[in-house]
C-alpha cells in the first residue's frame, strides 16, 4: 500500500482529539472522516484538522460511505459494544479504545462476532508504548533482573475529568474504575509477567472524589483509591496502588519490578508537566552501583497527547500491522483479559473475597 492510511474517528471527544493530533504528524496517514453525536465535539475536531473531512452523526452512515481504511473507536465505554457491532459490517481496520467493553460478557460477545473479520483489530493500550515503560519491559524480558517475581505499579493522579455528558461518573457506563482506568495496568502486568492471571484480591473505596456531585439525583459511584494484587500462573505477584486524589504528584505512574538478581524501576512524569525525560534505573544485587538510563520523548510527539508520547508510537505500530498484514500487537484477547482482571478486582472489593480468574471462563 503506497497511499496514506485513511482514518475515521468515531467519538471525537477528548481521546478522539488526541488521536487526531497524533495522526496529523504522521506522514503516511490522514483523517478523512469524523463521526460523533455531539456537534460541539465535531467542531472542536474541525478546528484541529488541516484538511477537509466528511462528518457523520452515526456510524452506520460512516460504514455505508466506505471512505476510510481504519476506524478509531473512542466513544464512551458503554457504547463500544453497539458501535463495534456496527463497524463489523465494514472491512476496516479497528483501533478500539480501552476498555474493550465494560463487561467480560460484552467483550466475549464482540470477540465471537469477529471470526474471519478481514481487518486488523487492535485494543488501544497506550501505556505499553510509553518509552520508559517500553524500555523497562524490554529489560525484564531480556532477563536483566533474572527471573521476575514482584511487580508494582503505582498511579497517583488527579480525579476523573469531566467528559461529554459526564458519562464517566458511574460504573454502569464505565465498567467501574478498575475496568475503565486500570485495565491499562492489568494489561501491563500480564504483558510484563508473560503469564495469565490466577486470582485477584483487592481493597478500595470512593472516599473523596465526586461525593458532592449529583446527576439526575444520583451521586457518582466510581472508586477513587484501591490496592489490587494479582497472582499469575508463573508465580509472579503484581500490585496496583491507585489513588485519584493525588494531584501534584511528581510522577503519575511509577513502576518497579524485582527479579532474582536485581531490580528495575522507572517513573512517568505527571500528565501535562511538559517533562520529556525519565530514568530507567537498574540495580543488581551483586553490583555496588545502579545503572541509570535517561529516556527522552521527542518534544513534538509529547505535545500532541496526554500519554507521554505513547499514542504516536501506538499508531506507528498499528499502521505497520496494517501495511504488513500482520497480527495486532494488542489483541482482542489482551483487551478482554484486561477487562476481566478489572472486573475481578471490582468484584473482590464488593464481595470482600479473593476472586479466582477461572470464574470468568476465559
Ligand atoms: N487510552 C487512554 O489512555 C484513554 C484516555 C482517555 C479516554 N480513553 C477512552 O476513550 C474513549 C472516549 O473517552 P473520552 O475521554 O474521549 O470521552 P469524551 O466524553 O471526551 O468523548 C466521547 C465522544 O463520543 C461521542 N459519542 C457518544 N456516543 C457516541 C456514538 N454512539 N457514536 C459516535 N459518537 C458518540 C460523544 O459525543 C463524545 O464526543 C473511552 O472509551 C475512554 O475510556 C482512553
SSE order and pairing:
Blueprint: E1 5-10, H1 14-23, E2 29-35, H2 39-48, E3 54-56, H3 59-65, E4 70-73, H4 80-87, E5 93-97, H5 104-113, E6 121-124, H6 131-141, E7 148-156, H7 171-174, H8 177-180, H9 183-193, E8 197-205, E9 225-232, E10 237-243, E11 251-259, E12 262-269, E13 277-284, E14 291-296, H10 299-303, H11 310-324, H12 332-351, E15 355-356
Parallel strand pairs: 1-2, 1-4, 2-3, 4-5, 5-6, 7-10
Antiparallel strand pairs: 7-11, 8-9, 8-15, 9-10, 11-12, 12-13, 13-14
Helix pairs in contact: 1-2, 5-12, 9-12
Bound molecules: nicotinamide-adenine-dinucleotide (NAD).
- CATH class of the largest domain, named Alpha Beta
State the shape: globular
Order of helices and strands: EHEHEHEHEHEHEHHHEEEEEEEHHHE
Strand line-up of the largest beta sheet: 14-13-12-11-7-10-9-8-15
Q: Structural class, from secondary structure content?
A: alpha/beta
**Strand percentage:** 25-35%
The number of helical elements comes to 12
CATH topology of the largest domain: Dihydrodipicolinate Reductase, domain 2
Describe the structure.
With about 350 residues, the protein is of the alpha/beta class. The chain folds into two domains: about 5-125, 3-Layer(aba) Sandwich (Rossmann fold), CATH 3.40.50; about 125-305 and about 330-360, Dihydrodipicolinate Reductase, domain 2. It has helices spanning about 15-25, 40-50, 60-65, 80-85, 105-115, 130-140, 170-175, 175-180, 185-195, 300-305, 310-325, 330-350, and strands spanning about 5-10, 30-35, 55, 70-75, 95, 120-125, 150-155, 195-205, 225-230, 235-245, 250-260, 260-270, 275-285, 290-295, 355. The strands form two sheets. Strands 14-13-12-11-7-10-9-8-15 form a nine-stranded mixed β-sheet. The chain has a six-stranded parallel β-sheet with strand order 3-2-1-4-5-6, sandwiched between helices. Helix 1 packs parallel to helix 2 (about 40-50), helix 5 runs antiparallel to helix 12 (about 330-350) and helix 9 (about 185-195) crosses helix 12 (about 330-350). The longest helix has 20 residues, at about 330-350. The protein starts with a strand and ends in a 6-residue tail after the last strand. About 45% of the residues are buried. The structure holds nicotinamide-adenine-dinucleotide.
